[in-house]
Design goal:
Elements lengths: L1 E5 L14 H12 L6 E3 L2 E8 L2 E8 L6 H11 L7 E7 L7 E5 L7 H10 L4 E6 L9 H5 L8 H13 L1 H5 L3 H12 L1
Parallel strand pairs: 1-4, 1-5, 5-7
Antiparallel strand pairs: 2-3, 3-4, 6-7
Helix pairs in contact: 1-5, 2-3, 5-7
Enzyme class: hydrolase
Protein name: Peptidyl-tRNA hydrolase
InterPro entries: Pept_tRNA_hydro, Pept_tRNA_hydro_sf
Length: about 190
Amino acid sequence: MQIWVGLGNPGAEYALHRHNVGFMAVDAIAEVHGFGPWKKQFQGWLAPGRIGPDKVLLLKPATFMNDSGRAIGEALRFYKLGEDALTIFHDELDLAAFKVKVKTGGGNAGHNGLRSADAHIGNAFRRVRIGIDHPGHKDRVTGHVLGNYAKSELDPLAAMLGAIAAEAPLLAARDDVRFMNEVSRRLA
C-alpha cells in the first residue's frame, strides 16, 4: 500500500493557487483512475483506489499547508507504514513552470508543507516536485505562490495534470525515471 499526499490549502478561495497544485494533481489522479469518493479522515480527505495492481490512498490534508505533517503522520501511523510508502505532490519554485521532477529525501527549500512533513515523519519520502517557476525576486515569492494561475496558464496546467495522472502507473510501480520521461514526452 502507498499513500500519495497532495499539498494545498482547503477552501474554494485557494483552489487555483499555485501552492495548491499538489491538491490538483491528486484530484486528477483520482478522476482518471476512478478512485472512491473523498471522505473525511486523518484531518483531511482520503480517497482509496488502485493504480494497476497497487493499492494507493490519496490524501489531501485539511490542516492548511503549514501543518500538513500532522495529517500525513496520522495516516502513516494508522496504516503502520514508513516513509518509503509515502509520496508527496507539491509546488516547487526552483523548477520551471509545468516541469515535473521526482526525488526521494532532501531538504524542504523553504516549503512550509514539506517542513511540517519533515517535523512529523522525517524527510526520506518521495516527492513529486511540480514546477511553478520563481517570480524573479524574493520579495515577490509569497504573492506568486499564493496567487492564482493566470488564464493563459490554465491549458498548460491541465495538460501537465493530465500527464501526471496518465503516467501514475509508472509512479506506483516506482519507476520514477520513466515516469518523469513519459510526463515530459507528453508535454513536449
